[in-house]
TrEMBL record:
Extent of the signal sequence: none
Recorded GO MF terms: arginase activity; manganese ion binding
Keywords assigned by UniProt, alphabetized: Arginine metabolism, Hydrolase, Manganese, Metal-binding
Entry keyword Electron transport: no
Protein residues bound to Mn(2+): 58, 84, 86, 88, 181, 183
Similarity field: Belongs to the arginase family.
Matching CDD domains: Arginase
Co-factor: note: Binds 2 manganese ions per subunit.
Broadest EC class assigned to this enzyme: hydrolase
Protein name: Arginase
A GO CC term assigned to this protein in UniProt: cytoplasm
Pathway recorded for this protein: Nitrogen metabolism; urea cycle; L-ornithine and urea from L-arginine: step 1/1
Transmembrane segments: none
Length: 255
């Protein structure tokens, strides 16, 4: 896939971020990986290039977005479109599963897992009023309470089903980033995820809504998380990945 994309975009560079899986706890592995990822994203942004981060579970968002924040001139503010079936707004005291990928947004907003604090998301928290969750349809009450308390904007799947994604997708006036958890997409179109949730955004609708955003010079970074190729069915998720990446690296080209 990379070779095909690079054929049309010679400036594309592949960059691996190593993960030290030998560390003693999952939180330490995630903290170390996010620290390395934040450094990579900050460096790529500082060079005036556009980072595209592909993961891996959504805990990588802590590295990506704290890295972007670090690279921008103070106060380093940007809007973040968080497209996800889940809210990822837990901390260890509220999480039903203890899964770290259910916690990255809370951490980025300043309520961080103690083992991740200062490493996975160093620096000041993001501004909740500048983050919009889009596609939400699976969450716990503690996450809704956190969103209300902090002023996080949430666009539920019901609104998308009623009005269409294009009608509810924000178009930020200033710099912004996009984090796409592939489980926001309907499992019929993107089965290659770890936590599928039925009734999601259709792939074609997502691509139509993202194309103008990815073509905007104000879009500073794209992250695509939770891609799990062994779970794919008939190459559907791979095809969506390639279309998304093509929209990001060749934004002027027809689909
Ligand atoms: Mn997520």
């Amino acid at each position: 896939m990379f070779e095909r994309l690079a054929a049309g975009s010679p400036s594309l560079i592949w960059h691996d971020v190593p993960v030290a899986v030998s560390l003693s706890s999952p939180a330490l592995v995630v903290a170390q990986a996010c620290d390395a990822l934040a450094g990579a994203v900050a460096g790529i942004t500082a060079e005036g290039r556009f980072p595209i981060v592909i993961g891996g579970d959504h805990s990588i968002a802590m590295g990506t977005w704290s890295g972007l924040r670090r690279a921008l001139a103070p106060p380093g503010l940007f809007d973040l479109l968080w497209i996800d079936a889940h809210m990822d707004c837990h901390d260890p005291s509220t999480s039903p599963s203890g899964a770290l990928h259910g916690m990255p947004l809370a951490c980025l907003l300043g309520r961080c897992h103690p083992d991740l604090a200062g490493v996975a998301c160093p620096g000041p928290p993001l501004t909740p009023g500048r983050v919009t969750l889009i596609g939400v349809r699976s969450f716990e009450p503690e996450e809704t309470a956190f969103a209300r308390r902090t002023g996080l904007r949430v666009v539920h799947m019901e609104e998308i089903a009623a009005q269409g994604l294009a009608a509810v997708m924000p178009l930020p006036a200033g710099p912004f980033g996009i984090t796409l958890d592939l489980d926001a997409v309907d499992p019929g179109d993107a089965p290659a995820v770890g936590t599928p949730e039925p009734g999601g955004i259709r792939a074609a609708e997502l691509l139509d809504a993202l194309r103008p955003l990815l073509a905007s010079p104000r879009c500073l970074a794209l992250e695509i998380a939770e891609y799990s190729p062994p779970h794919d069915v008939a190459g559907r998720t791979a095809a969506l990945m390639e279309a998304l990446l093509r929209a990001a690296v060749q934004p002027g080209e027809p689909p």
